[in-house]
Design brief:
Elements: H1 2-8, H2 12-15, H3 20-40, H4 46-50, H5 53-68, H6 78-92, E1 96-106, E2 109-112, E3 118-123, E4 130-131, E5 136-140, H7 143-178, H8 184-217, E6 219-221, E7 226-231, E8 238-239, E9 255-258, E10 263-270, E11 282-287, E12 295-302, E13 312-319, E14 331-337
Antiparallel strand pairs: 1-10, 1-14, 2-9, 3-5, 3-8, 4-7, 5-6, 7-9, 10-13, 11-12, 11-14, 12-13
Helix pairs in contact: 7-8
């Protein structure tokens, strides 16, 4: 038994193992790592070795642009071009304090209405026509008032005859009183009769002036120089100065007129932006229909009351030099400049 164990035991000189292979492995790993690090380091010549010539062109192109003082959009990468465009927009918008959209309106829109109920006899304008101050635009039927005028002329003639009779009676009475044939009371009555006849003539003449006024109202004229925005009635149509309710009653307006040389832009701004706007502030307007057009404006009106539901306040900007391109109710963009 002991002999068997002795044969199985390993001698001490055979237990130790040589460390030379471990050193070879460690040195090989170090050499491999150093080689990988060497080739991984970036170099100027890497693009030439890899064949990436485009990178060199992109780097050298801005230098050529700086030398020539001219930039070719085709030589700039899309990303670089978008960045340049954004920078340009920021430079252009540097002095803009607020940008708001609104609508062009006439400062004064006038809807011409009749003074009394009548029938349209003639209308001499169409939508878009230019009118001048005092120009006849509508004529109402005046048959009734012509008849009243004729009746008044007859009454006036009768009243004048009564005045003449009263004058003759006064002369006779005066002669009789002087000869003491009649009493003083008769003379006083004759004088009163003459004054009454004269007062009656004045009354009829006043009625005549009223009828002539009604006849003048039948001829409706434009109160301003401007353009007809709407034609609201046609010949033989009944019109009235007030509505009777409902949607099928007579029209209360004849035409709508506005001066297109006196235009404004009406906008609603948020109450959070109200501190950026003030009366007299200058701004620039761009109509949406003609984006290349530019008009100067100035803030002329700030509403004294805000809209609670919308949380906005109405602002009006007077257009300084409007032209034929600007039309009421077109939309426009307003840029408020910094003071």
């Amino acid at each position: 038994m002991n002999d068997s164990l002795e044969r199985l035991r390993i001698a001490s000189h055979r237990k130790s193992r040589s460390s030379a292979p471990l050193w070879f492995i460690f040195c090989g790993v170090l050499i491999l790592t150093a080689g990988i690090a060497f080739y991984a380091m970036p170099r100027v010549s890497d693009s030439d070795r890899s064949g990436a010539k485009s990178g060199a062109r992109e780097v050298s192109k801005p230098a050529e642009i700086a030398t020539s003082g001219r930039m070719n959009s085709e030589a700039i990468a899309p990303k670089e071009k978008s960045q340049l465009d954004g920078a340009t927009n920021r430079v252009e918008g540097k002095g803009i304090l607020l940008t708001v959209s609104g609508y062009i309106v006439a400062r004064e829109r006038i809807e011409i209405s009749p003074r009394f109920m009548g029938v349209v006899k003639w209308i001499g304008v169409r939508k878009g026509d230019s009118v001048t101050n005092g120009q006849v635009v509508v004529v109402l039927d005046d048959t009734e008032y012509q008849a009243r005028l004729a009746e008044n002329e007859g009454l006036l003639a009768v009243a004048k005859v009564a005045v003449d009779r009263a004058i003759m009676d006064l002369r006779r009475t005066t002669d009789l009183v002087e000869r003491q044939v009649e009493m003083q009371k008769v003379l006083d009555d004759s004088r009163l009769n003459l004054r009454s006849a004269e007062a009656h003539v004045q009354q009829i003449q006043g009625t005549r002036q009223t009828i002539e006024t009604w006849l003048n109202w039948c001829v409706i004229r434009s109160p301003v120089n401007g353009v007809v925005l709407e034609k609201l009635v046609d010949p033989n149509e009944l019109v009235t100065p007030q509505t009777f309710g409902g949607g099928r009653g007579p029209s209360t307006s004849l035409i709508a007129v506005a001066d297109l040389k006196d235009l404004q832009v009406e906008i609603d701004i948020n109450e959070s932006d109200l501190a950026k706007v003030s009366l007299g502030q200058k701004c620039v307007l761009f109509p949406q229909a003609y984006a290349h057009k530019r008009y100067d404006g100035v803030v002329t009106e700030i509403a004294p009351e805000a809209n609670r539901q919308k949380g906005t306040l109405q602002i009006k900007i007077q257009i300084m030099s409007p032209d034929r391109f600007l039309t009421p109710e077109l939309s426009a963009t307003v840029e408020f400049s910094k003071p």
